[in-house]
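In the current project phase, we have settled on a layout for protein records. A sample record is reproduced below.
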Amino acid sequence: MLLFLPIWYRRNKINLLGVFFYNIFLLLFKGIMPIAALFNPKAKKWVQGRKNIFQKLEKATAGHQSIIWMHCASLGEFEQGRPLLEKLKADPSFKHAKFLLTFFSPSGYEIRKDYKGADWVFYLPMDGPQNAKRFLEIVNPSLVIFVKYEFWYYYLKKIKYRNIPLILVSALFWREMSFFKWYAGMQRKMLSRFDHLFVQDQTSKQLLDDIGLSSVTSISGDTRFDRVIDIAESAEPLPLIEQFMRGHKVIIAGSTWPEDEEVLKQTLNAENNPSLKLIMAPHEISEKHIASITELFSGCIRYSQLNSNTGSNVLIIDNIGLLSRLYKYATITYIGGGFGKGIHNTLEAAVYGKPVMFGPVFHKFKEAADLIRSGGAFTISSAEESIKIINQLLSDDEKLRESGKSSGDYVYSNRGATDRIIHFLKEKSYAVR
Protein backbone atom coordinates (compact mmCIF):
# COMPACT_ATOMS: atom_id res chain seq x y z
CA MET A 1 0.00 0.00 0.00
CA LEU A 2 2.83 2.40 0.84
CA LEU A 3 4.48 1.56 -2.47
CA PHE A 4 1.22 2.22 -4.32
CA LEU A 5 0.53 5.64 -2.82
CA PRO A 6 3.42 7.49 -4.46
CA ILE A 7 2.39 6.14 -7.88
CA TRP A 8 -1.25 7.10 -7.29
CA TYR A 9 -0.18 10.53 -6.07
CA ARG A 10 2.14 11.19 -9.01
CA ARG A 11 -0.45 10.14 -11.58
CA ASN A 12 -3.23 12.22 -10.07
CA LYS A 13 -0.94 15.18 -9.47
CA ILE A 14 -0.04 15.18 -13.18
CA ASN A 15 -3.71 14.92 -14.10
CA LEU A 16 -4.71 17.77 -11.78
CA LEU A 17 -1.90 19.95 -13.12
CA GLY A 18 -3.08 19.21 -16.65
CA VAL A 19 -6.63 20.30 -15.79
CA PHE A 20 -5.28 23.42 -14.06
CA PHE A 21 -3.34 24.52 -17.14
CA TYR A 22 -6.24 23.55 -19.39
CA ASN A 23 -8.52 25.88 -17.42
CA ILE A 24 -5.98 28.67 -17.79
CA PHE A 25 -5.93 28.02 -21.54
CA LEU A 26 -9.74 28.27 -21.67
CA LEU A 27 -9.73 31.55 -19.76
CA LEU A 28 -7.03 33.04 -21.97
CA PHE A 29 -8.73 31.85 -25.14
CA LYS A 30 -12.08 33.32 -24.10
CA GLY A 31 -10.39 36.62 -23.27
CA ILE A 32 -8.32 36.85 -26.43
CA MET A 33 -10.98 35.95 -29.00
CA PRO A 34 -13.18 39.08 -28.55
CA ILE A 35 -10.05 41.23 -28.94
CA ALA A 36 -8.87 39.26 -31.96
CA ALA A 37 -12.34 39.65 -33.48
CA LEU A 38 -11.72 43.38 -33.79
CA PHE A 39 -8.89 42.74 -36.25
CA ASN A 40 -9.33 39.25 -37.68
CA PRO A 41 -12.37 38.30 -39.84
CA LYS A 42 -12.11 34.62 -38.91
CA ALA A 43 -12.01 35.40 -35.20
CA LYS A 44 -14.97 37.74 -35.67
CA LYS A 45 -17.01 34.91 -37.19
CA TRP A 46 -15.93 32.61 -34.35
CA VAL A 47 -17.27 35.07 -31.76
CA GLN A 48 -20.42 36.17 -33.59
CA GLY A 49 -21.36 32.59 -34.46
CA ARG A 50 -21.58 31.73 -30.76
CA LYS A 51 -23.82 34.63 -29.71
CA ASN A 52 -27.03 33.33 -28.13
CA ILE A 53 -25.91 29.85 -29.12
CA PHE A 54 -27.78 28.09 -26.32
CA GLN A 55 -31.06 29.82 -27.09
CA LYS A 56 -30.67 28.86 -30.75
CA LEU A 57 -29.92 25.25 -29.85
CA GLU A 58 -32.87 25.09 -27.47
CA LYS A 59 -35.26 26.44 -30.08
CA ALA A 60 -33.99 24.11 -32.81
CA THR A 61 -33.88 20.84 -30.87
CA ALA A 62 -36.89 21.24 -28.57
CA GLY A 63 -39.15 18.20 -28.57
CA HIS A 64 -36.69 15.81 -30.23
CA GLN A 65 -35.82 12.74 -28.18
CA SER A 66 -33.26 10.90 -30.31
CA ILE A 67 -30.40 13.10 -31.50
CA ILE A 68 -27.13 11.84 -32.92
CA TRP A 69 -24.49 14.52 -32.44
CA MET A 70 -21.37 14.60 -34.64
CA HIS A 71 -18.62 17.11 -33.90
CA CYS A 72 -15.84 18.13 -36.29
CA ALA A 73 -13.05 20.62 -35.72
CA SER A 74 -13.14 22.01 -39.24
CA LEU A 75 -13.73 21.19 -42.89
CA GLY A 76 -11.16 18.42 -43.21
CA GLU A 77 -12.64 16.48 -40.31
CA PHE A 78 -16.10 17.03 -41.73
CA GLU A 79 -15.05 15.29 -44.95
CA GLN A 80 -14.08 12.30 -42.81
CA GLY A 81 -17.28 12.35 -40.81
CA ARG A 82 -19.57 13.06 -43.75
CA PRO A 83 -19.81 9.53 -45.24
CA LEU A 84 -20.67 8.14 -41.80
CA LEU A 85 -23.28 10.81 -41.10
CA GLU A 86 -24.94 10.38 -44.49
CA LYS A 87 -25.00 6.60 -44.26
CA LEU A 88 -26.48 6.73 -40.76
CA LYS A 89 -29.15 9.13 -41.95
CA ALA A 90 -30.09 6.77 -44.79
CA ASP A 91 -30.08 3.61 -42.65
CA PRO A 92 -33.55 2.41 -41.52
CA SER A 93 -32.11 1.42 -38.14
CA PHE A 94 -31.61 5.12 -37.36
CA LYS A 95 -34.76 6.45 -39.03
CA HIS A 96 -36.07 7.97 -35.78
CA ALA A 97 -32.90 9.97 -35.16
CA LYS A 98 -32.24 13.62 -35.86
CA PHE A 99 -28.68 14.71 -36.66
CA LEU A 100 -26.81 17.61 -35.13
CA LEU A 101 -23.49 18.66 -36.68
CA THR A 102 -21.19 21.05 -34.83
CA PHE A 103 -17.93 22.78 -35.78
CA PHE A 104 -15.27 24.51 -33.74
CA SER A 105 -13.74 26.50 -36.60
CA PRO A 106 -15.37 29.06 -38.91
CA SER A 107 -13.58 27.45 -41.87
CA GLY A 108 -15.80 24.43 -41.34
CA TYR A 109 -19.03 26.05 -40.18
CA GLU A 110 -19.18 28.90 -42.70
CA ILE A 111 -18.79 26.53 -45.66
CA ARG A 112 -21.13 23.83 -44.36
CA LYS A 113 -23.74 25.79 -42.37
CA ASP A 114 -26.37 24.99 -45.02
CA TYR A 115 -25.40 21.32 -45.32
CA LYS A 116 -28.57 19.28 -45.91
CA GLY A 117 -27.17 16.02 -44.59
CA ALA A 118 -27.75 17.17 -41.00
CA ASP A 119 -30.93 18.46 -39.42
CA TRP A 120 -29.02 21.25 -37.67
CA VAL A 121 -25.55 22.78 -38.05
CA PHE A 122 -24.11 24.90 -35.23
CA TYR A 123 -20.88 26.16 -33.75
CA LEU A 124 -19.84 24.23 -30.66
CA PRO A 125 -19.96 26.45 -27.56
CA MET A 126 -16.54 26.89 -25.99
CA ASP A 127 -15.55 24.12 -23.60
CA GLY A 128 -16.01 24.54 -19.85
CA PRO A 129 -17.92 22.75 -17.07
CA GLN A 130 -21.02 24.95 -17.29
CA ASN A 131 -21.11 25.19 -21.08
CA ALA A 132 -20.72 21.44 -21.51
CA LYS A 133 -23.41 20.74 -18.90
CA ARG A 134 -25.87 23.18 -20.47
CA PHE A 135 -25.21 21.95 -24.01
CA LEU A 136 -25.87 18.34 -23.06
CA GLU A 137 -29.00 19.23 -21.07
CA ILE A 138 -30.42 20.98 -24.16
CA VAL A 139 -29.41 18.49 -26.83
CA ASN A 140 -29.55 15.30 -24.72
CA PRO A 141 -27.94 13.21 -27.49
CA SER A 142 -28.43 9.47 -27.72
CA LEU A 143 -25.04 9.04 -29.44
CA VAL A 144 -21.99 11.30 -29.77
CA ILE A 145 -19.42 10.98 -32.55
CA PHE A 146 -16.19 12.97 -32.48
CA VAL A 147 -14.09 12.98 -35.64
CA LYS A 148 -10.33 12.42 -35.72
CA TYR A 149 -8.55 14.96 -33.48
CA GLU A 150 -11.13 16.94 -31.55
CA PHE A 151 -10.81 16.51 -27.75
CA TRP A 152 -12.54 18.82 -25.25
CA TYR A 153 -12.01 17.83 -21.64
CA TYR A 154 -15.29 18.97 -20.06
CA TYR A 155 -17.50 17.83 -22.93
CA LEU A 156 -15.97 14.38 -22.78
CA LYS A 157 -16.24 14.29 -18.99
CA LYS A 158 -19.91 15.31 -18.92
CA ILE A 159 -20.80 12.92 -21.75
CA LYS A 160 -19.24 10.07 -19.78
CA TYR A 161 -21.05 11.05 -16.57
CA ARG A 162 -24.37 11.02 -18.42
CA ASN A 163 -23.63 7.53 -19.82
CA ILE A 164 -24.11 8.68 -23.41
CA PRO A 165 -22.40 6.40 -25.96
CA LEU A 166 -19.32 8.21 -27.25
CA ILE A 167 -17.09 7.14 -30.15
CA LEU A 168 -14.09 8.59 -31.96
CA VAL A 169 -13.78 7.85 -35.69
CA SER A 170 -10.97 8.01 -38.27
CA ALA A 171 -8.44 8.78 -35.55
CA LEU A 172 -4.74 8.77 -36.30
CA PHE A 173 -2.04 8.80 -33.63
CA TRP A 174 1.73 8.97 -33.67
CA ARG A 175 4.26 8.63 -30.86
CA GLU A 176 5.19 12.32 -30.77
CA MET A 177 1.65 13.32 -29.75
CA SER A 178 1.14 14.54 -26.19
CA PHE A 179 -1.08 11.56 -25.28
CA PHE A 180 2.02 9.38 -25.04
CA LYS A 181 4.26 11.67 -22.98
CA TRP A 182 4.99 11.13 -19.28
CA TYR A 183 3.04 14.25 -18.32
CA ALA A 184 -0.11 13.40 -20.33
CA GLY A 185 -2.39 12.20 -17.53
CA MET A 186 -5.21 14.55 -18.51
CA GLN A 187 -4.93 13.71 -22.23
CA ARG A 188 -5.05 9.99 -21.54
CA LYS A 189 -8.03 10.56 -19.25
CA MET A 190 -9.86 12.17 -22.18
CA LEU A 191 -9.19 9.15 -24.37
CA SER A 192 -10.49 6.84 -21.64
CA ARG A 193 -13.88 8.62 -21.77
CA PHE A 194 -14.66 7.14 -25.18
CA ASP A 195 -16.67 3.95 -25.39
CA HIS A 196 -14.79 3.08 -28.55
CA LEU A 197 -11.89 4.47 -30.55
CA PHE A 198 -11.84 3.70 -34.28
CA VAL A 199 -8.34 4.28 -35.62
CA GLN A 200 -6.95 4.32 -39.12
CA ASP A 201 -3.96 1.99 -38.80
CA GLN A 202 -2.02 -0.55 -36.76
CA THR A 203 0.48 2.02 -35.50
CA SER A 204 -2.31 4.04 -33.91
CA LYS A 205 -3.83 0.95 -32.35
CA GLN A 206 -0.52 -0.17 -30.89
CA LEU A 207 0.05 3.22 -29.28
CA LEU A 208 -3.39 3.07 -27.64
CA ASP A 209 -2.85 -0.54 -26.63
CA ASP A 210 0.35 0.52 -24.87
CA ILE A 211 -1.55 2.98 -22.63
CA GLY A 212 -4.20 0.45 -21.65
CA LEU A 213 -6.95 1.12 -24.20
CA SER A 214 -6.74 -2.07 -26.24
CA SER A 215 -10.21 -3.26 -25.20
CA VAL A 216 -11.90 -0.16 -26.65
CA THR A 217 -9.76 0.31 -29.76
CA SER A 218 -10.13 -1.20 -33.21
CA ILE A 219 -8.85 -0.50 -36.71
CA SER A 220 -11.62 0.69 -39.01
CA GLY A 221 -9.60 2.55 -41.61
CA ASP A 222 -10.24 6.07 -42.89
CA THR A 223 -13.77 7.06 -43.90
CA ARG A 224 -12.35 9.53 -46.45
CA PHE A 225 -11.70 6.61 -48.79
CA ASP A 226 -15.43 5.90 -48.83
CA ARG A 227 -16.13 9.57 -49.44
CA VAL A 228 -13.85 9.99 -52.46
CA ILE A 229 -15.10 6.72 -53.97
CA ASP A 230 -18.70 7.91 -53.66
CA ILE A 231 -17.77 11.21 -55.33
CA ALA A 232 -15.87 9.54 -58.16
CA GLU A 233 -18.57 6.98 -58.88
CA SER A 234 -21.31 9.61 -59.02
CA ALA A 235 -19.34 12.39 -60.72
CA GLU A 236 -21.16 14.18 -63.51
CA PRO A 237 -19.26 15.13 -66.69
CA LEU A 238 -17.81 18.60 -67.28
CA PRO A 239 -18.42 19.36 -70.98
CA LEU A 240 -16.33 22.54 -71.11
CA ILE A 241 -13.36 20.72 -69.60
CA GLU A 242 -13.74 17.92 -72.13
CA GLN A 243 -13.70 20.47 -74.95
CA PHE A 244 -10.67 22.28 -73.53
CA MET A 245 -8.54 19.15 -73.21
CA ARG A 246 -9.70 17.28 -76.31
CA GLY A 247 -6.72 15.60 -78.01
CA HIS A 248 -4.24 16.77 -75.36
CA LYS A 249 -2.48 15.38 -72.35
CA VAL A 250 -3.34 17.37 -69.22
CA ILE A 251 -1.73 18.15 -65.88
CA ILE A 252 -4.46 18.98 -63.38
CA ALA A 253 -3.18 20.83 -60.34
CA GLY A 254 -5.46 21.22 -57.34
CA SER A 255 -5.36 23.45 -54.25
CA THR A 256 -2.23 25.26 -55.40
CA TRP A 257 -0.37 28.03 -53.59
CA PRO A 258 2.05 30.57 -55.15
CA GLU A 259 5.05 28.27 -54.58
CA ASP A 260 3.30 25.45 -56.45
CA GLU A 261 2.30 27.79 -59.24
CA GLU A 262 5.90 28.88 -59.79
CA VAL A 263 6.99 25.22 -60.00
CA LEU A 264 4.22 24.52 -62.51
CA LYS A 265 5.19 27.57 -64.56
CA GLN A 266 8.79 26.41 -64.83
CA THR A 267 7.66 22.88 -65.61
CA LEU A 268 5.38 23.99 -68.41
CA ASN A 269 8.07 26.24 -69.89
CA ALA A 270 10.62 23.42 -69.83
CA GLU A 271 8.22 20.99 -71.49
CA ASN A 272 7.46 23.47 -74.29
CA ASN A 273 5.00 20.91 -75.62
CA PRO A 274 1.92 22.25 -77.47
CA SER A 275 0.13 18.93 -76.89
CA LEU A 276 0.37 19.36 -73.09
CA LYS A 277 -2.18 21.49 -71.22
CA LEU A 278 -2.45 22.64 -67.62
CA ILE A 279 -5.65 23.05 -65.61
CA MET A 280 -5.08 24.67 -62.24
CA ALA A 281 -7.54 25.07 -59.35
CA PRO A 282 -5.85 27.37 -56.79
CA HIS A 283 -6.58 27.01 -53.10
CA GLU A 284 -7.37 30.70 -52.84
CA ILE A 285 -9.65 32.15 -55.53
CA SER A 286 -9.63 35.79 -54.50
CA GLU A 287 -9.45 38.26 -57.36
CA LYS A 288 -5.96 39.28 -56.24
CA HIS A 289 -4.64 35.73 -56.38
CA ILE A 290 -6.31 34.91 -59.69
CA ALA A 291 -4.85 38.09 -61.17
CA SER A 292 -1.35 37.10 -60.03
CA ILE A 293 -1.78 33.70 -61.68
CA THR A 294 -2.96 35.18 -64.96
CA GLU A 295 0.11 37.43 -64.92
CA LEU A 296 2.37 34.43 -64.28
CA PHE A 297 0.82 32.32 -67.05
CA SER A 298 0.67 34.56 -70.09
CA GLY A 299 -2.27 33.74 -72.36
CA CYS A 300 -4.12 31.62 -69.79
CA ILE A 301 -7.91 31.69 -69.58
CA ARG A 302 -10.31 31.60 -66.64
CA TYR A 303 -12.97 28.93 -66.38
CA SER A 304 -15.63 31.62 -66.04
CA GLN A 305 -14.59 32.90 -69.49
CA LEU A 306 -14.12 29.50 -71.13
CA ASN A 307 -15.80 28.65 -74.40
CA SER A 308 -15.28 25.93 -76.97
CA ASN A 309 -13.05 28.08 -79.19
CA THR A 310 -10.20 28.88 -76.81
CA GLY A 311 -6.66 28.33 -78.02
CA SER A 312 -5.00 28.62 -74.60
CA ASN A 313 -3.07 25.76 -73.06
CA VAL A 314 -3.58 26.93 -69.43
CA LEU A 315 -6.97 27.05 -67.74
CA ILE A 316 -7.48 28.62 -64.30
CA ILE A 317 -10.48 27.41 -62.29
CA ASP A 318 -11.86 30.55 -60.64
CA ASN A 319 -14.75 29.00 -58.71
CA ILE A 320 -15.19 26.26 -56.12
CA GLY A 321 -16.84 22.86 -56.31
CA LEU A 322 -15.22 21.43 -59.46
CA LEU A 323 -11.95 19.99 -58.20
CA SER A 324 -13.10 16.55 -57.10
CA ARG A 325 -14.59 16.00 -60.57
CA LEU A 326 -11.73 17.65 -62.46
CA TYR A 327 -9.15 15.02 -61.58
CA LYS A 328 -11.02 12.50 -63.69
CA TYR A 329 -9.69 14.23 -66.82
CA ALA A 330 -6.01 14.33 -65.81
CA THR A 331 -3.07 12.56 -67.36
CA ILE A 332 -1.01 13.52 -64.31
CA THR A 333 -2.25 15.22 -61.12
CA TYR A 334 -0.46 17.70 -58.89
CA ILE A 335 -1.60 18.40 -55.31
CA GLY A 336 -0.72 21.79 -53.84
CA GLY A 337 0.44 22.79 -50.39
CA GLY A 338 3.59 20.69 -50.26
CA PHE A 339 5.89 23.71 -50.33
CA GLY A 340 4.07 25.26 -47.37
CA LYS A 341 2.31 23.85 -44.31
CA GLY A 342 1.36 20.56 -45.93
CA ILE A 343 -0.35 19.00 -48.91
CA HIS A 344 -4.06 18.96 -49.54
CA ASN A 345 -6.28 15.96 -50.37
CA THR A 346 -4.39 13.40 -52.46
CA LEU A 347 -7.19 10.83 -52.39
CA GLU A 348 -9.51 12.98 -54.55
CA ALA A 349 -7.02 12.54 -57.40
CA ALA A 350 -5.81 9.01 -56.70
CA VAL A 351 -9.35 7.56 -56.74
CA TYR A 352 -9.49 8.12 -60.51
CA GLY A 353 -6.39 6.00 -61.06
CA LYS A 354 -4.05 8.92 -61.81
CA PRO A 355 -0.37 9.44 -60.94
CA VAL A 356 -0.06 12.00 -58.14
CA MET A 357 2.69 14.59 -57.54
CA PHE A 358 3.22 16.92 -54.59
CA GLY A 359 5.86 18.93 -52.75
CA PRO A 360 8.15 17.83 -49.91
CA VAL A 361 5.91 18.63 -46.91
CA PHE A 362 3.77 15.48 -46.76
CA HIS A 363 5.07 13.41 -43.85
CA LYS A 364 2.09 14.02 -41.57
CA PHE A 365 -0.23 12.64 -44.23
CA LYS A 366 -0.33 8.87 -44.03
CA GLU A 367 -2.10 8.39 -47.35
CA ALA A 368 0.56 10.42 -49.18
CA ALA A 369 3.36 8.26 -47.80
CA ASP A 370 1.35 5.13 -48.61
CA LEU A 371 0.82 6.32 -52.19
CA ILE A 372 4.54 6.90 -52.64
CA ARG A 373 5.30 3.40 -51.36
CA SER A 374 2.73 1.92 -53.71
CA GLY A 375 4.27 3.66 -56.73
CA GLY A 376 1.22 5.81 -57.30
CA ALA A 377 2.70 9.11 -56.12
CA PHE A 378 5.90 11.12 -56.44
CA THR A 379 7.27 13.85 -54.23
CA ILE A 380 9.35 16.73 -55.54
CA SER A 381 11.42 19.45 -53.90
CA SER A 382 12.09 21.64 -56.92
CA ALA A 383 10.90 22.51 -60.41
CA GLU A 384 13.79 20.45 -61.81
CA GLU A 385 12.45 17.33 -60.08
CA SER A 386 8.95 18.12 -61.34
CA ILE A 387 10.23 18.36 -64.91
CA LYS A 388 12.13 15.08 -64.57
CA ILE A 389 9.17 13.10 -63.23
CA ILE A 390 6.68 14.51 -65.75
CA ASN A 391 9.08 13.74 -68.58
CA GLN A 392 9.42 10.16 -67.35
CA LEU A 393 5.67 9.66 -67.10
CA LEU A 394 4.81 11.29 -70.43
CA SER A 395 7.51 9.42 -72.32
CA ASP A 396 6.72 5.98 -70.88
CA ASP A 397 3.11 4.90 -71.35
CA GLU A 398 3.62 1.74 -69.30
CA LYS A 399 5.03 3.66 -66.32
CA LEU A 400 2.17 6.14 -66.59
CA ARG A 401 -0.41 3.35 -66.66
CA GLU A 402 1.17 1.37 -63.79
CA SER A 403 1.50 4.44 -61.58
CA GLY A 404 -2.14 5.40 -62.14
CA LYS A 405 -3.30 1.87 -61.47
CA SER A 406 -1.34 1.80 -58.20
CA SER A 407 -3.10 4.99 -57.08
CA GLY A 408 -6.56 3.68 -57.86
CA ASP A 409 -5.89 0.26 -56.35
CA TYR A 410 -4.65 1.88 -53.13
CA VAL A 411 -7.85 3.88 -52.68
CA TYR A 412 -10.25 1.05 -53.46
CA SER A 413 -8.36 -1.42 -51.26
CA ASN A 414 -9.01 0.87 -48.29
CA ARG A 415 -12.76 1.33 -48.64
CA GLY A 416 -15.20 0.07 -46.00
CA ALA A 417 -14.45 2.08 -42.83
CA THR A 418 -17.95 3.56 -42.76
CA ASP A 419 -19.65 0.17 -42.93
CA ARG A 420 -17.43 -1.21 -40.18
CA ILE A 421 -18.37 1.63 -37.82
CA ILE A 422 -22.09 1.34 -38.57
CA HIS A 423 -21.95 -2.42 -37.99
CA PHE A 424 -20.44 -1.72 -34.55
CA LEU A 425 -23.14 0.83 -33.70
CA LYS A 426 -25.88 -1.61 -34.64
CA GLU A 427 -24.22 -4.44 -32.74
CA LYS A 428 -24.08 -2.26 -29.60
CA SER A 429 -27.58 -0.87 -30.28
CA TYR A 430 -26.27 2.67 -29.97
CA ALA A 431 -29.07 5.06 -30.98
CA VAL A 432 -30.86 2.19 -32.75
CA ARG A 433 -34.63 2.03 -32.38
User: Anything to note?
Assistant: The chain has two domains: 64-221+416-428, 237-413. The chain has a mean pLDDT of 92.
